[in-house]
Amino acid sequence: MSTETKVNTYDDAEKGTQEITPPPLTYLPTVYPEISEKKPIDTLMSLEDKKEVAAPPVKKSPPKPKKKVSKWIRWVLWFNTYRKFFTLTFTLNMVALALAASGHFPYAVKYNGAFVVGNFNFAILMRNEIFGRILYWFVNTFFAKWTPLWWRLGCTSVLQHLGGIHSGCALSGVIWLLFKVVRMFLTLEVEHDAVLILGVCTNVAVIISALSAIPWVRNTHHKYECHFFATRVKFSHKSIFSVFERHHRFVGWTGLFCTWAFVILGDIYDPTTKTWNLDGVHVIRQQDFWFTIGMTVFIALPWICVREVPVDIELPSPKVAIIRFERGMQQGLLGRISRSSIMEYHAFGIISEGKHAKYHYMIAGVQGDFTRRLVNDPPKTLWTRQVKFAGVSNTSTLYHRGIRICTGTGIGAALSTCLQSPNWFLIWIGSDQEKTFGPTISGLIHRHVGPERLILWDIVFITSNYIGNTEIMQGCKEAGIPVFGTLWDF
């Protein structure tokens, strides 16, 4: 599959507001020396004369061949810290599983349930927004400016790619769960039917949730309409939401409930005596019970912070909505918003002049049903999580100076860094920005990002489309410039 089929190369906001149609090609009138200057200039030659004296066609210089990026650079960018974390966590788990299956790791055989929920527990923790904010705060507080550059770059890379641990532990947990249930079916004569049924249900729910998070599935099916049925049935806006969200979140929650039932029934049933031990003390002494409590807390915490808040929406052009919220924010944060308290949350970068500012903003470019409705039917309130999550730009405080590169609506994730730090240089690539994004965003830039910003940097952060992100990262790596680009894993 080509890159163009995987992602949108450019969004409408990057193209600008003007629709430019090239004029039809016409011949210019030719003026002869023998014609007096007083004669009308629209005196034209015959078609035959034009052919005789037509100027030879100008030869266009061939375009310069595009510089090829070395295989080593492509490998370094592909095998990033995300994939390193995934490889490490998954490999360690598979080694432990192989030892358990071969009889060389009896502890894992006896407590395989703890390995299941322990992996899920860690996977969810890596995606917990409050835990992420704590990690970013710790690194930004204790390692800013004074530590060696290689250490700060390593911290940024680790924080940006924690999703690799999430993916590695989640997939490992699925395989450990399969291992546990298969072993139970091998001893079918001593297992209770209720435990077996819950084991199968938990497997199905967890596997569906995991499969929906595969990058190809997310990129292909992260839509807000069902194209197959759209030609036959008209859905209300409330019934249309992301395929990824429906399977990864809601089936995942179903898997959590099944996990609770599976863990409790598995802990109180004794296959040796085929009896139920209803002593609660026995249950709370099991590792998998406490891992499941931790998993539940990590899932619930961000939802406790959900609130419905008033918003003002500015529509500078048909392609962009500027959403204004009350209170200021620190730089490098992103927020999730929705028209509903539970379904269809979308993440956008936050623009703010600082913690003590009166407002913060989000930029939503029209790309799908949700953002299109923001333009066509602007709401007065939106649901949001009050605790925002940190992006890679949040680590900009670690560095003395840097460059922030973005295209189109990527300015939403990039601008706060340059507004709140006088040593960060902004490169914003787009067309007709002031007309597309309006006076609010342009005013923030003109007030805070002056032309005196020098291009002296420690690091480059990029927020762009897939192709732009890839090419700029390859160029920076080739030139030996530290660079971090966009991830599409949240």
TrEMBL record:
InterPro entries for the chain: Adenylate-forming_domain
The protein, known as: Non-ribosomal peptide synthetase
Region (Disordered): 1-24
Annotated transmembrane regions: 85-105, 163-182, 194-214, 250-269, 289-306
UniProt keyword list: Membrane, Transmembrane, Transmembrane helix
